[in-house]
Amino acid sequence: MTPMAHQIEVPHPDDAALVGHVQLRAWLQTYPNEGAGIDETWIREHRGSAVTAEGIAQWREFIEEAMRHPDLLFCRVVRSGAEIVGFLCGRRDDVVTLGPMYLLHEAQGQGAGGRLMDEFLAWAQDDPMLLWVTEYNERAIRFYERYGFRTTGERELWRGKLPNVRMARESMLSDKIT
Q: H-type helices in the chain, by residue range?
């Protein structure tokens, strides 16, 4: 059976619940790590709110705000038929911040992540970019490195446990000027 083609779209506010569920599923697939003390219970405690009425309302608000201010907020979803299997969001302040970005395991390795990143980079243009990535998520780190992101040495323990590293992508214009 061939995988269904993935469509990348601007989400509708009614997609908020689906986005919240993808976020929680992606965390449950990606972040359990015995060494870091991160298990399903910890993930549900710290990310389960994505599927609550409050979490869904926050996603709806973000999606609506991104629709009103597409120059400042970015959000795209990956659909497989009617199902959302991933998303990438970001914002523009002094720099562009990428995140969150999640793609469920069943949708990985089929080009959807690269297409999401291509759309995000076109939106971000040549602005410097920052993101946080979990230190032991080596697949994601390699993915971001392919797009010019480099670790900065900055680290954080999200909620006291999840070890994250900062990655940055400098403006391509600064590379051309020097």
A: 16-30, 40-47, 53-68, 112-124, 138-146, 172-177
